[in-house]
Amino acid sequence: MVEGDAYVRQNILKILESAGFRAVGADSLAGGIDILDTEFVNLAIIDIKLPDASGFELMEYIKQAQPGVDAILLSAWGDVETATKAIEQGAYDFITKPFNVHHIVLAVQRAMEKRRLLLENRDLQASLEKKIREKALSLRLRNEEKLQHLNNTIMSLVQTLEAKDQYTEGHSRRVADTALRVAERLGLSRRAQEDIHLAGLFHDIGKIGIQESVLNKAGQLTPEEYEIIKKHVLIGVKILSQIPQFSRITPAVRSHHEFFDGSGYPDGVSGEEIPLGGRILAICDAYDAMTSNRSYRRKLSVDRACAILTRNRGTQFDPEIVPVFLRVIGYEEQAV
Ligand SMILES: [Fe+2]
Ligand SMILES: [Fe+2]
Question: How many CB atoms lie within 10 A of CB 113?
């Protein structure tokens, strides 16, 4: 309660106290600021004409220092202009002197009720925000857990595959590692690099669905058997498509046997229609296959394998990625 006239001030303080409020008084702008700086204030009652300033100045101070604290302004009777100005400046209410006790208590009660709702709302919002933050955190943890679980499952699938296909031990991991390095060298985003690494790990996962007699056959495959082997691509896509988190890597898995000139499988797409991940995997996959022992042949030398990659630039392999691959494996002399 900031009012220069001691009689009026004491009178209002008494009225408020007997109505059940705790009220403190000051006689000037400076005294009002003092109260605001030291007390928890819910509502200010300010006389428009203070001895050292205008009540509007104190209202401005409140707006800056304690936004959310309302002011009820007091002024001499009949001053319509000031009353209008007070409301325009954001005063909650306006009371003219001489005042009626009932009127002042009612105005204060209304303002305090508004204040109570505001604070309650603020608390509610804060606790709601806290709950949302906690929920988001636990969801994220649970998602991470799920993803980890999923990775473990797929890794055990990869291990199952490698146990089943004796000639592909370590193949998926080597392909994944070189593909990652090629992706790095190409300057792909962090996320794209991670996707290509995962796609490399899982590119042959569909071989789980191919019978071992065909998978491990010593010697050349018949055309029928070759058709069976080719199915591993779409079986792999089917396995991975069960898992929404892997939707980003299925295009690369699906296209790792496509040829740059369009003569590969399963879709026969060519050039840049082949997803970049698939074009990278195709090179890493072919190189690893050529430099490993297979059921039907002994491994080729690095020179031979690199010469074959270079020779098939533009037909089987992306002509721009082959030199990058050769650089990644440290075979730069052949890089064109
Ligand atoms: Fe494959
Ligand atoms: Fe492969």
Answer: 10
Cβ of 325: how many Cβ atoms within 10 Å? 24
The verdict on 321 and 235 lying in the same domain is: yes
Give the Cβ contact number of residue 15 at 10 Å: 18
Do 113 and 257 fall into the same domain?
Answer: no
Token pair of 144 as six digits: 């991470």
Residues surrounding ion ligand 2 at CB below 5 Å: 204, 285
Please indicate, yes or no, if residue 154 is contained in any of the structural domains.
no
Lowest mean pLDDT among 38-47, 215-224, 301-310: 215-224
Asked whether residue 133 is assigned to any structural domain, the reply reads: no
Confidence (pLDDT) at 151: 77
Query: How many domains is the chain built from?
Result: 2
SS3 assignment, position 92: coil
Residue 125 lies in a domain: no
304-335 pLDDT tens trace: 999 999 999 999 999 999 999 999 999 875 44
CATH number for the domain that contains residue 313: 1.10.3210.10
The pTM score is 0.60
143-170 confidence digits (pLDDT tens): 888 878 877 887 788 888 888 876 677 8
317, β-bridge pairs: 313
What confidence score (pLDDT) does residue 167 get?
67
User: Around Cβ 226, how many Cβ atoms within 10 Å?
Assistant: 11
Q: Is 97 considered catalytic here?
A: no
CATH number at residue 52: 3.40.50.2300
The verdict on 12 and 89 lying in the same domain is yes
Strand partners, 49: 54
**Is there a domain that residue 137 lies in?**
no
Q: Which ligand is nearest to the CA of 284?
A: 2
pLDDT at 333: 59
In the reported structure, the alpha carbon of residue 175 is separated from the centroid of ligand 2 by a whole-number distance in angstroms of: 7
Q: Hey, what are 28's tokens?
A: 């000037």
Q: Which structural domain range is residue 88 located in? A: 6-120
Which ligand gives the minimal distance to the CA of 236? Answer: 1
Return the structure tokens found at 277. Answer: 């991940």
